[in-house]
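This part of the workshop introduces the protein records we will be handling. A record pairs a protein's sequence with a compact description of its fold. Comparing a sequence with its tokens is the quickest way to learn the format. To make this concrete, we reproduce a full record directly below:
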Amino acid sequence: MFSTKQQQQSSEPASKNVSAWESLILDLESHGDDDDDDEEGGWFLNGGTSSSLQLSARSGNGEEKMEQESEDRLPQLLTNIHRDSSAAAANASNDRGEQQTSPILESPSQLKDWMAHQSTNTKYAPHSNHMGRKMDAAYSLKAAQIALSLAKCFGRQFEQDDMDEESRHEDLQYIHYEDVIVDNIIVKTEDSGEVVSAVLESTSFTSGATNHRSVGGNTERRQVLALGMIMYDLFTQGNPFPQRIQQSLKSSASALSFSKSLRISEHSEEDDDRGASGGDRRKNKDDDDDDEMDESDQQELFVRKQRLRRCDDEKGKEQSVSKLLKLAGVPISICRLISDMLSNRDDNDIGGLFQCDKSVSSFAEVIMDLEQMVDQPKDFLYDTIRLNAKPIVRDKLYSRQKELEQGIELAGRCVMDASSSVKQEVLIISGLSGSGKSSLVNELIAQLTSNGWESLHCKFDQIGRRKPLSTIASAFDSLFLSLLSTENTRLCGNDTLGDMRTNLLESFDEESFPILFHLMPNLRRVVSNDDNSTEMQQTDYVFDESAMISSKIRMHNLFYELLKAITSSRGSPMLLFLDDLHWADSASLELISFLIEEMGASITDDPITYVRGTNVFIIGTVRSNEVDNSSDLTEFLEQVQSCRNVTVTDMSLQDLSPDDVNVMTSEALYYSQRLTRSLADIIHQKTEGNPFFVKEFLNDLTVENLLVYRFSERTWEWEWEWDEELIESRAISDGVAEILTRKLLRLSKDQLSGLVMLSCFGSEVSLEVLALIRSSCSNSDVMNTLDCLAQARFVERTDEKYRFVHDTILLAAQDAVDENDHMIIMKELLQALLPYGYSDDTILFIVVDLISRVGAERVHDSETRLLYAQLNVTAAKKATKTTDFSSASTCVKCGISLLSDGHWVTSYRLSLELFNQSALVEWALGNTEHMMRSLDEVFNNANCFEDTLRAAHVKLAYLRMTGNCLVEAFDYGFQILEQLGETFPATPKNAIIAQEILGTKQLVTGPLNESKLRGLAEMTDSTKKEAMAFLEEMLICSYQSQSIYFPLIACRMVRITLQYGRAKTSCVGLASLALSLVTVFSDFSEGYSMVKTSMSIAGSDKRVLCYIKTTAYGMINIWKEPIQAILPQLKDVYNMSLKHGLIDNALAAGMFHAYRSFFTGSLLQPLSKEVALFIRNNLERHKRMVMHLCALPVSNGISCLRGSSFGPQYVEEFITEEQLAEALRNKESTVCEGMLAIKMMCTSIFRRFDGVKATARQYLELFERQGSASAQFVNIYRLFYGGLLSLHFYRESRDQFWMDRAAHAIQKMEVWAAESVWNFENKLFLLQAERHYAFGEMDHAAEKYKLAQESSKKHRFLHEEALACELAANFHEKAGNVKFVAELIDRAVCCYQTWGAEGKVQSLLLSP
């Protein structure tokens, strides 16, 4: 075995001595336990070594101690080695279905015994070499681990340069080449004269001035040589070296005379065939090429062959080291490594006996090889025969571990639990094409799904226009299909599907499902069961063209609710992968932006109702060189960056380094990194480290025979060979595209046409579509052709579709044929699919995309052009239904381009349809110029007025929503109505308005009239139906501008309904008439009854129903029903309006809810959160400045009452005289009155009267004059708190002005209390009490104060109860009834505290 110099000289038997190698093992174990700071960790059998090992003790005592410790510890050490190797062997046998056991080794005295034991007590792995004795897989792996530890140990002495001589002598007592003796093959020491060194000069530390690294070239090479000898003995399990090598080492003369011939004899049989293996094939020419060699090359080859013969003659049939290793069953990779280690020689080292072209000269190279073998034994250690002579680039990530860990960390933050960050995480991964963006995300998905995550993959396409929103919708549909699969149901159970069905049915109504079914057919199967399957099958999607904008928002809300329903029912986080965002259409980008914004808005850190995560992690990939070319993408990224509670992480993928490319190349070739380094360097230079380029470049080298995998008859090995000069000389001007194009041109005609055909559909195409074109494009069977392409890894096939392996292949396929051939293929596809486009929406959009790419200039037949134009307008209407207005615009433009000259004459209806649709979608997109051009086309060329009505609707909606065009909208609307037979007075008088309201009221009130109204038939007169639609638009205009035309238009709608039947908007007119009765005539009972009737006939149209409910709950029912019962109804209307995209209606309902909750005493803390969320998520997002001005005082008032340090402390700080005056100047009287009411409320509660007296005097009389006959909610609190302030000021000044204001307030309150005792009685009692107090009527005042307290408590107006108690306390204090004061103050404090008005409580407690 192995022994140290001292042990070799010992006279004791070998069995009694511990070899140097065994002592190394023991020392490694002992030092591994002591060195806790060793970065390798643990002792060498577990992959680690100590960094400071003193392996040889030169003193006698030290030697005896070492030998004694070795004797004591060796049995346990060998038992551990055997145990580890047995476990590895068991694992290897388990892979083969065998069960392998070995008896425990009973304390052998030497490792040689263990190796012998292993060789006779093992079963052989299937990858063992069959040229001779077989070696167990577990033994090979354990031996490689031991060799790796030794290499790391020996190599450490070369890592420490900067230490003084004393430290070197103390700390660097490593084992050197002179310490190792392998049987009789030795490395000479200074004092040994009995043997001859393989290197004639010792390079041990003989001089303190000699730096060990300065001679490290020779020193490290010699130690590598020594390690090679150890590894030879280790892997051959004790086989001796070839006899001639042992003899050649016994004399320096022999060593010198045979130094070159031994190099050949050692490796001639492998070097002449493998000399350039993993290296330069130029150094190993075949014998058949002798004639082509120059004279010097032929002479050299002749000399080498003569030396071979001479050596063989002298040594007979002696085998080389490499072949002995193979015959010992040693894996070929180990054979190569040991042979190359024993071949190392330096040019200055005249004693080197072994050398080859790829000799190993450093421990770093040894460690590199051994680490690959240990880490990946199946690929780099065990012998396997590769049947494929092409590189196999693995489906794994290279040099992306840091990015992968970052992605996992971000995903963890999205999980909905208390430890998550309060942010919605969005990861944007950028990089050049082929940089591995998708591969990184796919690996991340694989790791997350193993931990219970779900994933949705949306792959956007550069080529091919699909069904609108289909990229995102199909991802959801695929998820539903997987849920319905038998296997998934078996694994997950029916509960998951049942929970999802329940969530979906709760989240969507009967109008929403048809929209989603249209996009996701499998959703119908998920939500259908025995109870509702018939209903679900019968419903269909009906699009309302008059609600374009709201339909878009509604669609976005549907996707958001769908995502929430899925994540909540599955209970698993969801990863939404948006692949190739730079190719996403604008509709998809808008939807994604909406989803991100909504998810961010849903997150709150409220300790009561917090939502700290969305359970959704969004990842998008973009090509870094495409971002600047897409304005839609740039706008999308900017918008996402600005979203609240959203964190966007940018991750840029860089190209691989040379080392990474070497790893990739090595693993693709199953060849050591040491041997592939030169090839990898060239590949990196050519590809710049782009992973996809590297893969294709490697494959291209094999095709071009520049990288060859062949079997050597001399070495009996499969080996890679390449020619570096030829590879370096290859010019690739167009990068990977050039390689792919050459690759495609090598395909057969059918295969190339099949690939080009597939590229016409984009990155993927379904099997259903391919079935329709099976024999198109001069291809007898497209499916079989694509299957062949799938085997060649151009495409891949799933159960549903074919898709390109990479987008670069798609683009190469596009460029593989010239434009004419490409057009021929597209026209063939177009003709094959055309018959199916009328019945299948998916086929329709493929057809119109092909039409667009063929171009109108290539379609010459007039009938064909008209047919194509009609298909485009059909597709545009379908795209409009799914709110993909951008796709609709593209279809319309293509259709218009197909029209011929004079089309208004020859194709009038088609032209009218195209330009009407164009005006509609361009208005929805905000393209005013294009919209106006299309409108002009219609107005200038329409044959009759009726043909312009659709365009007129678009123009009126545009003017109404522009804001500063309301006057123009009124004028234009009345012009259209006049032509429809509905005229209005230019300047209506109040008397006319009153007469019209009362007359219409008589027609609809009463039991008989209400019954008649409910029983009206549907309106059939087309002119009146158009008039009703325009009247609704004008009704909205008049409400927005607070015009006196509002009641007149409402009355007209009711009268048309009574005469011509019920239209969809008839109930809107009736509800508006009810509102007019309440606000103008204060006819609360009739208005209340009428609005209930309007709700009963509204039907299921959510747009109409939301308007009526907002009107009813926000402005009418408050006069009759308890206001606390109305608040939940307003919240429901708000949510319903948002869900259906009715933003203006939602904002109105939300505003009503905020004001009514604040003034009626809702608890301030939760109300503060609701109002803040409402302002942030709606008003700020939708830029409704007027509503924002209305809501802000409510938020500030709440902060003031709560005493919040983040809000205003006093009312004077947030409602100023300037703000009130500005609102009046802008004719925003409702805003002004609301701010005044809040200001007076806070002043009354805080009793800070000085700053409000002048304001009250100015505005109370003003609003009294303007709204003496009106009845709006804000009037209630303006009069209530204005009356309280007026009575206070009257008591102070006796100014009759204030008493007049108070009397007006009391008179109004008496009228309202008669309508609703619940809402107004307590307010009336408190005003009356204050008036009695002002007049000195103390008994009456005391009684009214008590009644006010009791009524407030009974009717649950907590804050007004507190105010009544506080005012009563002030009254009794002034009246001298001190005994009541403390109790009343305590009661007021309690009520204020319950309400949440801590600011008031503090001021009340601090007051004297």
Observations:
- The radius of gyration is 45 Å.
- Residues 658-730 form one domain.
- The chain has a mean pLDDT of 76.
